[in-house]
UniProtKB/TrEMBL annotation:
Organism expressing this protein natively: Ignelater luminosus (Cucubano)
Protein name: RIB43A-like with coiled-coils protein 2
InterPro entries in the cross-refs: RIB43A (IPR008805)
Compartments reported by the entry: Cytoplasm, Cytoskeleton, Flagellum axoneme
Name of a matching Pfam family: RIB43A
Length: 381
């Protein structure tokens, strides 16, 4: 039985992908293996021409857009002018309508004005002018029992009563004024008496003050005399104290420079610094002897230092000579070592030269043929 192998959708997809890759590879070969494109490159003149054409198209497009924009602006201006004109006409028409209404359609000229008159109630007569008003009927509800028909008479009586009350109040006020005036007179008399008494007391006070002032002056004078005496006595005592102080100062140990006052209680050879006045002759002689001894010691010390320096110089010179000899030995050994290295380098150079000759004459003697180069550049990958 024969078995046929059917192609599935997956196989078709793979075949299509392979064909697509093959087509891409062929296009790539045409582009890469084309010497003109690979060496020269793209057509610059054609590209420039395309750029110029594109610029021209852009310029024409901009020009057309500008024309449309200008027309749109013009139409907008026309529409705005028409709209403004329409608004003005509407305003004018509304003004004319209002003027017509004001002139020929007044509110008081309407047929129903009597129904809408705001002053209608004010223009009407009262519902009742007096009790015998003929307009008042039985059912008018304008006259009732218990009304104050004698109101005028009653008001007259009330006015007379008020007048009598006012007269009585006036009399009472006049009496009160008289009493107040009498009280004011009595108060004035009392004030005058008080002022006179105050004047008398003031005079008495002034006299007392004069007497006190006189007594105070006498006391102050006596006190001043006493202070003057005390001052003279103090001046006399101060003068005596000053003379005594001057004498004591002149005869003091400090002025006479007594050397014994500088002795300290802390030891026989201790001195008090702020009372010390200098050395005696014996102390100066001892001090000089000590200085001479120090000078001799200093000379011996300097001689010892010079001797030590000479010995140190001899040691240093010997050490330097030894180091110089060692440096010479090291230099000689280094020269011998450098000579050995040079010999070794020469030998290695000869070996390298022989190796290069071997490579050039034996190893690299096989030259490649054209078939070797043709195996390259067969694919773009």
């Amino acid at each position: 039985m024969l078995q046929f192998q059917l192609m599935t959708d997956q196989d078709r997809k793979e075949a299509a992908a392979i064909e697509r890759r093959r087509a891409i590879e062929e296009e790539r070969k045409k582009r890469i293996f084309n010497p003109r494109v690979r060496l020269i490159g793209n057509d610059i003149e054609a590209l420039k021409q395309q750029i110029e054409e594109k610029k021209k198209l852009d310029a024409e497009r901009k020009k057309v857009d500008q024309v449309f924009e200008d027309q749109a602006i013009k139409y907008d201006q026309i529409s705005l002018a028409l709209e403004q004109k329409e608004v003005e006409e509407r305003k004018k028409l509304a003004q004319e309508i209002n003027n017509f209404r004001v002139s020929f359609q007044k509110f008081e000229d309407r047929r129903e004005f009597d129904l809408n008159d705001p002053q209608a109630i004010k223009k009407l007569l009262p519902a009742r002018l007096y009790d015998e008003d003929p307009r008042i009927g039985i059912s008018a509800a304008q006259k009732f029992e218990g009304e104050d028909a004698a109101g005028d008479e009653r008001k007259k009586v009330q006015r007379e009563q008020v007048k009598s009350w006012l007269d009585q109040q006036i009399e009472e006020r006049e009496a009160a004024d008289k009493e107040r005036k009498a009280a004011d007179e009595a108060y004035k008399a009392a004030v005058i008496a008080r002022d006179e008494r105050a004047i008398e007391l003031d005079v008495m006070e002034k006299q007392c003050r004069k007497q006190l002032l006189r007594a105070c002056c006498n006391f102050n004078k006596a006190l001043a005399d006493e202070r003057e005496c005390d001052k003279k006595e103090r001046d006399r005592r101060d003068k005596e104290d000053s003379m005594a102080q001057m004498y004591n100062t002149m005869m003091s140990d400090m002025m006479t420079e007594n050397p014994d006052v500088s002795l300290s209680n802390l030891g026989p050879n201790r001195r008090i610094g702020y009372m010390y006045k200098g050395m005696s002759k014996e102390e100066k002689a001892a001090f000089r002897q000590a200085q001479l001894a120090q000078i001799e010691d200093d000379k011996k010390r300097r001689a010892d230092e010079r001797r030590f320096q000479m010995e140190w110089d001899d040691y240093t010179n010997g050490t330097q000579r030894t180091i110089a000899m060692m440096d010479k030995q090291l230099a000689r050994k280094q020269r011998e070592k450098n000579k050995e290295i040079a010999e070794e380098n020469k030998r290695m150079a000869v070996d390298h030269k022989n190796y290069i000759n071997y490579l050039e004459k034996i190893v690299y003697s096989n030259k490649p043929t054209a078939a070797f180069y043709e195996q390259f550049n067969k694919s773009t990958r």
